[in-house]
Amino acid sequence: MRQMLLLPVAGLLLAAIPSEGVLAQKRGGTVVLAQQAQPPTLDAASTSSEATRNFATHVFEGLFTRDEQARVIPQLAEGYKVSDDGLTMLITLRKGIRFHNGNEMTADDVRASLLRYAKVGASAKIMEPVANVEVVDRLSVKMTFARPVPIFIEQLSSPRGPVVVLPAEEGAKPINQAGMIGTGPYRFVEYKPDSHIALERFDGYVPDDRFPGYSGFGGKRTPYLDKIVIRFVPEAGARAAGLETGEYQAVDNLTSASGKRLLSDSRVTVHSVMPWAMQTFFFNASVPPTNSQKVRQAILAGLGMEEIMAIASDGNYRLGWGWQYPEGEYFAGDVGKERYNQNNADRAKGLLKEAGYAGEEMVLLTDNAYKNNHDAAVVAGGQLRALGINVTIKTLDWPSTVRTRNATTGWNMVPIAVGTEPWEGPYGVAVLLAESIIHKTKDPELEDLYKKLTTAPAMETRKAVFADLQKQIYEKVYAIKLGDLGQYVAVQSKLKGYKPYRMPRFWDVWYE
Fold this sequence. Notes:
By secondary structure, the chain is an alpha+beta fold. It has 2 domains: about 1-10 and about 25-235 and about 495-510, D-Maltodextrin-Binding Protein, domain 2; about 275-485, Dipeptide-binding Protein, Domain 3 (Dipeptide-binding Protein, domain 3). Helix content is about 30%, strand content about 25%. It has helices at about 1-10, 50-60, 105-120, 150-155, 170, 235-245, 255-260, 295-300, 305-310, 345-355, 370-385, 400-405, 420-425, 425-435, 445-455, 460-475, and strands spanning about 30-35, 65, 70-75, 75-80, 90-95, 130-135, 140-145, 185-190, 195-200, 215, 220, 225-230, 250-255, 270-285, 315-320, 360-365, 390-395, 415-420, 480-490, 495, 510. The strands form 6 sheets. Strands 1, 8, 9, 12, 13, 14, 15, 18 and 19 form a 9-stranded mixed beta sheet that branches. A hairpin with a 5-residue loop joins β2 and β3.
């Protein structure tokens, strides 16, 4: 059991980021992060929203997480062993881990958290094959599966909708009612809607000495800052101005114009990341007119991706049809390429006629927090009106947008920046495409492909399945990929140790 994890960990030691300038590090200070949106919920397990993950990665931990290259590494787990038939998994836990309430983490807490995730988790589908979770002893949990799932640990380690470990008494509580009690380097202090979230260093935190430094969301994380305050600042100009004046020490996103301008400002360190996310549209396929596959195909045929991406990203983009990045091992080659960026008004109008579209209203839902989403909706709305589609753009704040798109009525199409899913591999993307969470319709063919993707033991088989899944998405059009977004993130130069990643990380960060 120890061999299965200690060997991979040893191989990843060089991937960990050792603390720079050890003698220069010191405790103290507060960082104020200006974040585009406020979280739709504080229940970390129940959402895939970036606005929640930004604070949750500091407060909560899981059994496994991802390193700097998105590879699986242990976090609260000590080791694991899978039976030869793939139907049993034994997970052992690290000893001496403390919750923010002072209690030691045990197998009872892990079991309760896993069972809770099966009910409220943002990716609860990963728990479907789990037939039973039982406590073996104080630091061991056994999971029994209805069928082998070779990639279960990869799913369990996903930060998208994280499988966080809570105290057992909180694990029994429904969505949005569990206490904010984790095992991470910072503890939750307060949340003021429309204002901020405040965190404080947890002095009882136990760094993971199996690593020489932190890596990704795990490894040996050391909290130096006294306090982290995440302020909700939807206006891009205010985020940039606050960074320059020192009101904010970090921002989660700058416009391309601000990012390029601040590159020459010695007070600020700007990082450019490409790709950061995929800009997409998702459809509600359960209500007219987008319950018609022909209508959805018409919209795909009529959209001009370059115009949308150029405006939505302020020029910080690249075109691409793949639902995995070209740099990744699951990139499906030219699958779907012929249907991407058609920008073909005649074909779109022909498909609308075949669908019998008669001018029914189509509600394009968007938010006012993420400029890329809002601008993508506005530009696409103009293009679709030119095709004869009766588009109404409905703009809400971010939490209201998430609540509305979770409903089965009241909208037809919504822009979503899909960031973590393609970064971590094919499974998060496959869940988005195969599940009915967003597109609101069950598709047995896609569900079967997802099942094959998660159960096939051979990598080549899984690649072929994902390619087939991507082909089906371009045919059935439950979602449309527009292109890849870049992102500028920045901190004040006096803040040392900061490195950009999927989400802001303020462990191993200190003031000069």
